[in-house]
Amino acid sequence: MGKVIVQQLVTLDGFMADENGGISFHSEVDDFSESDASQLALLETVGHVLLGAGTYRLFVDFWPTPTAADEPVADRLNSLPKTVVSRSLGTAPWGDFAPVTVERRDPVIVARDLASGEGNVMVWGSIELSRALFAGEMVDELHLTVLPVTLGDGIGYLPSDFGMHRLTLLRCESYSSGILNLVYSLR
């Protein structure tokens, strides 16, 4: 049985997107090379990627394209099976790779089913999906990639009614770029 891992790139002040849902602040960091190495190691434990429709649209425009060919995580990410939870998508192609499975069921049930298989289930971004999984108590680990950037206002990565939870720090890595990788267990 795998774990459900939610990984978010966040600002130092805790936002995963600006107030309009934009993530242009990611480009404020010049060097992701050290954190990419950590990401590759994590991806070796992943058996399935679970995305919301908005993140799927962002990802499909980049990862399975020639533009991403030199990205260290592209090969592994492109080869993993993927599912998108969406009521609006009919199909979800992934460039020249296997298409993404479209699920219309409750995201908590989808995550539970995927986690019963081999490897961990990785969720990136996907604000509504992530919040549903937190609310449904389906998240085993929270991986925060904290960028050395502040926004002042934006969209947080937790649902506003998540309440108080005591998390256990499993790992903390810092990189010369100023990025921090924080890994917490919710169980």
Structural commentary:
- The protein has one domain (4-185): Dihydrofolate Reductase, subunit A (3-Layer(aba) Sandwich), CATH 3.40.430.
- The protein contains 5 helices and 10 strands.
- It has helices spanning 33-43, 53-60, 74-79, 107-115, 127-135; strands at residues 4-11, 15-17, 46-52, 82-85, 101-103, 120-124, 141-147, 155-156, 168-174, 180-185.
- The strands form 2 sheets. The protein has an 8-stranded mixed β-sheet with strand order 5-4-3-6-1-7-10-9, sandwiched between helices. Strands 2-8 form a two-stranded antiparallel sheet.
- The longest helix is centred in the first third of the chain and has 11 residues, at 33-43.
- It is globular.
- The relative contact order is 0.27.
How can the largest sheet be summarized?
A: 8 strands, mixed
**Which H/E pattern describes the elements?**
EEHEHHEEHEHEEEE
CATH architecture: 3-Layer(aba) Sandwich
Distance between the termini: 15 Å
Helix-residue proportion? 10-25%
Any idea how many domains? 1
Chart the SSEs and their pairings.
Elements: E1 4-11, E2 15-17, H1 33-43, E3 46-52, H2 53-60, H3 74-79, E4 82-85, E5 101-103, H4 107-115, E6 120-124, H5 127-135, E7 141-147, E8 155-156, E9 168-174, E10 180-185
Parallel strand pairs: 1-6, 1-7, 3-4, 3-6, 4-5
Antiparallel strand pairs: 2-8, 7-10, 9-10
Short précis:
This protein is of the alpha/beta class. The chain has 5 helices and 10 strands; from the N terminus they run ββαβααββαβαββββ.
